[in-house]
Amino acid sequence: MADTKEPTPENMTMMQAFEWYVPDDHKHWKRLADNVAQLKAIGVDNIWLPPGCKASSPSGNGYDVYDLYDLGEFDQKGGKGTKWGTKEELLTLNENAKQCGMGLYWDAVLNHKAAADRKEKCQAQEVDQEDRNKTISDPYEIDAWLGFDFPGRAGKYSKQKYHWYHFSGTDYNADNNKTAIYKILGDKTKGWADGDEVDSEKGNYDYLMFADLDYDHQEVKDDVINWGRWISKELTLKGIRFDAVKHFSEEFLRDFIVAMDEEYGKGWFFVGEFWKDSLDDMTRYLDRMGKKFSLFDAPLVYNFSQLSKTENGDLRNVFSDTLVKTMPVNAVTLVMNHDTQPYQALEAPVEGFFKPLAYALILLRFDGYPCLFYGDLYGIKGEHPFPPACGGALPDIALARKLYAYGVQQDYFDYATCIGWVRYGTWDRRFGCAVVLSNAGPGTKRMHVGEMHAGEVWTDVLGWEQGEVVIGDDGCGEFRCSGTSVSIWVNKDAEGRERFGKFSSDSDIYKS
């Protein structure tokens, strides 16, 4: 009979392809276009692009979104290009990514708009900063920046203009130069989104910043869904990362995803930024979204951060109360992102010594969809620069995932400060690997990698742990790890070993 075994699916890895302090030189699309092949070579399959729609200024990172339909094509808000570059350069990146088999995820900022073209008068009430359901003023007329005409685009791609009645809230009244949170009133709005549609933090967390879009208004729904269809024709996207999902309508987001599935077929990847350490809130959100959705595993990042700041922290508890343990199919695992990097942190970041351990824990295990961070791969620029994480070894940890982290997983979580695991490999990805990590002193783990490997000589692909391990007749080996470090042991003759150590984190990426 013919061999009917199915090939083992390749491990997938995504990467956030920017950090907050990327140089404001409008060359980022060019940098990425020049480097997608190098990223593909270390095992990155999909890159999460920064929000490339026109921002409030040419230096805006895109979370201060002005015009969804301007990808650096029109002279608006101080220039044609975005901080990242022009639309033409984005299309070149798109083509380069397609040619090397790299997928692109778009960062969609759909909660709000910024930098209105003109003021409009409307009725509003001030609400308490800490309880948005509590009004602290009578209704009165404000003069707010809520008129969006997009004159530079002149109706191309969408003729929709935005007025006060397309928004549920804003933060500034030009009549008295007062900054506050204003709930907009009027016949065409219903105040904040219903309490079961947004997060309950601060009473009702519909309002986050700038001019808050009202997804109870049909024109807003129609225009943003039309934008989703439009951008998916402009670029060869494989998915979308949604910013600030706990602040806007879940019902609208479900409708948006259904519309994308109907238009382009199922298979797109959707992940939301729901940055909260409450596992219960995250799992309930995923249940309401029908589980056709993923979230970044914020509780895991909190665990990494706490362990990195605790002397002799118990590594055996690293996955306690995390999304990847509870709902692994829906968990995007990460160590850092643009919100947790130093001097931009929403929460305390992971200490540098712990990052190799953390990346091994997300990249070399079975569960979760891991996400690398641009700032950890290339280093962080700006006023507070940081070198590449993991001593420059992050590309090799990612490559070890792509080549060897397959098959059944056997854990050796038997000691608080030194843990390990084995991936046994599969019929067509047979090499496997053995991983040991410690957040204290040096450690050794006797682990079983399989009798099929008896007599093989294994070495650490990172080169951090010197020497060799000869696999015994019983399929076991004594695998070592230095203090506060990680080692990844693989057959020294395994296919692909020659590919390690080829990535240069201090490459010419900032000279493109």
UniProtKB/TrEMBL annotation:
Q: Where is the Glycosyl hydrolase family 13 catalytic domain?
A: 12-414
Q: Which GO terms describe its molecular function?
A: calcium ion binding; hydrolase activity, hydrolyzing O-glycosyl compounds
Q: Which GO terms describe its biological process?
A: carbohydrate metabolic process
Q: Which Pfam families match?
A: Alpha-amylase (PF00128)
The cross-references to InterPro entries, in alphabetical order and at most eight, read: A-amylase_thermo, GH, GH13_cat_dom, Glyco_hydro_b
NCBIfam families under this entry? PRK09441.1-1 (NF006968), PRK09441.1-2 (NF006969)
Stored PANTHER family = ALPHA-AMYLASE
What is the designated name of this protein? (Trans)glycosidase
Q: Which organism was this protein described from? A: Glarea lozoyensis (strain ATCC 20868 / MF5171)
Taxonomy of origin reads: Eukaryota, Fungi, Dikarya, Ascomycota, Pezizomycotina
